[in-house]
Amino acid sequence: MRRLVCITAALLLLCASCLAEGDGGKGVEDLNRVFYEIFVGSFSDSDGDGVGDLRGVINRMDYLNDGDPESGNSLGIEGIWLTPIFASPSYHKYDVTDYYQIDPAFGTMDDLKELIGLCHERNVKLILDLPINHTGAQNRWFKNFLNAHMMKNADNEYYDYYVWIPEDESSPAGRHFTPSKQGKIKYESNFSDSMPELNFDLPAVREAMLNVALYYLDLGVDGFRFDAAKYIYLGDNPASVDFWKWYVGELRKVKPDLYTVAEVWDGEGVIDQYIPATNCFNFFVSQAEGLIAETAKAGNVNRFTQYIQQYQGKIKDMSPYAMNMMFVSNHDMDRASGYLPVSNGQMKMAANLYLLSPGSPYLYYGEEIGLKGSRGGANTDANRRLAMLWGDGDTVRDPAGATYEPSKQVSSTVKEQIEKRGSLFHYYQKLLSIRRSHPEIAKGEYKALTIPDSKAGGFVATWQGQSVAVFHNTTTRDMDIDLSAFTDLTFDSMDAFIGLGEAYLEDGVLALEGQTSAVLRVAP
Ligand SMILES: [Ca+2]
Ligand SMILES: [Ca+2]
C-alpha cells in the first residue's frame, strides 16, 4: 500500500512538471535546439523516381541523429524542419491543393507517422512548414470560391473564402489582384496568380486553418514553421500580429511545449512586432551581408557578442517563449558556401559564431558538406535547392528548372566526407557535439565578455548554476588574451576548442590561434 502511495505521489509530481512545461515559457529551455531544414524533394529519394520523399528522410535518420550522442556516427541535429509536404502541383509545394493529404510524390500519412515516431525515439523534434496565407489554385476551396462567384451565390460558404474585389475596381496600392474569367472578380494574389490569398477576416477560414494545425499536432508533430507570416494582412502588421497571437495561443492550449518559428522576412523593427506572438527567424544576421558572415570574415567579435546580448534581452522581454533563431541561408537564399568559402576557413568561423550561441539555430541541408547553389543568371530558386550529394547511389535529382553548373558544385560527397578525417562534415559534427555537451551555451543567460581594443571577443553563459565562456578569434592572427584584463571571472579549464588552429589556457592567459574558438569552464 505504501508503495502504491509513493507511485501515485511520483505520478502527481510528474504531471505537475508536465503542466509547468507550458506555464509562462518554462519549457522553452528544451526547445533551444539545432534544427536542420530539409527541402524534402531534394534530400533523399527512396523509390528511384528522382524526387526526395519522406521515406528518404526516414532512411537518412541515422545520418541526422542516430539516437546515441556518443556514437560519433551522425551529425547530431536536434530538430527537423520539413518544407511543405502537402498535396501540391509544384516541386516546392508552397501552393497547397489539400492540407490533409501528403503529396503522393512524397509518400503517405503513414510515412509521416513513422517519421514522427522515429524522431521522438531519438529526441528529435519535427516541425512542418505551414503555408496558410495562400492556397494553391487547384485547392477545392478555391474552386468552390470561383464557382460561388460564377453562380453569384453570396450565401455559399466559400463566397468570401478568398480576398476579392469586383473586376472593375482597381487594386489597393501595393497589392496584386488577378482577374478571374469566372464571376467577374479579381482575387488577391501577391505571390503568384496560382496562389490566391485566403480571407482571414472570415471566421470559417480561421477555423479551417486552425484545424489543419490541430490535425498535425494530434498526429504528433512538435510545431510549425509559418510561411509568409507577415502577408496574412499585407502591409498591416498589427492585424497580422493579432492573427498569429490568436493562432499560436489556440495551438498552445493543446500543446504547451509547442515550437513555432515564423518567416517574417523584413527588418528587425518589423520582426520585433511579431515576437510576442511567435518566434521568428533572425533575418538580420543571415546571408552574405548579415552579421554572422561579416564577423566570420575577420570581423570584430565584440560587435557580434554585444548584438546577441542586446537581442537576447530584447526578445526575452517580449515573450517568455522567445528564442534567437539564427541561420546563414535557407531555401530562398543563395548557398552560404558561395560567400563564406570553406577553403579559407570563413564557413567554419560562421558556424562557430552562430552555433555556439543561445537559442535555436538552423542548418540548411547540405551546409555541413559545403553544398553550393545560387540563383545566378538563370534567376531560378531551383539552384538554391539542389539535390543532396550523398555519393552512395541515392537517386535524388535536382529540381526541375535547375541550371547550376555541375562543375561548380562541391566535389566531395557525404559518403566521402564521413570517411575523411578533417572534412567539413566532421567539423560540424564536432561543433554540434561541443554545443550539446555544454548546454549553458544554448540555454543559459548570456553576457558578452568584451575585450578592449581587440577583434577577438567572447561571452559567458550560465545555466543551472554552471558557467562556461566561449571566445572566438575570427582573424588569421594568433592571439594571447590576458583574461584578467577585462573580467573578474576565474577560468578552471579549457573544455574544448574548434577551428583552424589550437587554443591553450595557462596562468590566466588564453592563447587563441587564428580562426579558432575556445570553450572554457568558469569556476563557480
Ligand atoms: Ca521518390
Ligand atoms: Ca494575405
Describe this structure in words.
This protein is α/β, with parallel strands linked by helices. It folds into three domains: 27-133 and 200-437, Glycosidases (TIM Barrel), CATH 3.20.20.80; 140-188, no CATH class; 443-522, Immunoglobulin-like. The protein is built from 14 helices and 19 strands. It has helices at residues 2-21, 54-59, 61-64, 109-121, 140-150, 203-219, 237-254, 268-274, 291-296, 301-318, 346-355, 414-419, 424-437, 439-443; strands at residues 35-38, 79-82, 86-87, 98-102, 125-130, 164-166, 177-180, 185-188, 223-226, 259-262, 362-364, 445-449, 457-463, 466-473, 479-482, 491-499, 503-506, 509-512, 516-522. Helix 6 (203-219) crosses helix 7 (237-254) and helix 11 packs parallel to helix 13. The radius of gyration is 24 Å and the shape is globular. The two termini are 44 Å apart. Residues 1-22 have low confidence and may be disordered. Bound molecules: calcium ion (CA) (2 copies). Residues 45-47, 49, 51, 53 line the site of one calcium ion.
**Shape assignment:** globular
Chemical compounds bound to the protein: calcium ion
Per the CATH scheme, the topology name of the largest domain is: TIM Barrel
If you average the pLDDT, what whole number results? Answer: 94
Q: What would you say the CATH architecture of the largest domain is?
A: Alpha-Beta Barrel
Classified in CATH, the superfamily of the largest domain is Glycosidases
User: What structural class do you assign from the helix and strand content?
Assistant: alpha/beta
Gyration radius (Cα, Å) is 24 Å
First and last CA, distance: 44 Å
Major sheet summary line? 6 strands, parallel
Parts with pLDDT < 50 across at least 5 consecutive residues? 1-22
Number of extended strands: 19
Strand order of the largest sheet: 10-9-5-2-1-11
Query: Regarding CATH, which class of the largest domain?
Result: Alpha Beta
Total helical segments: 14
**Helix amount:** 25-40%
Strand content: 15-25%
Q: What count of domains describes the coordinates?
A: 3
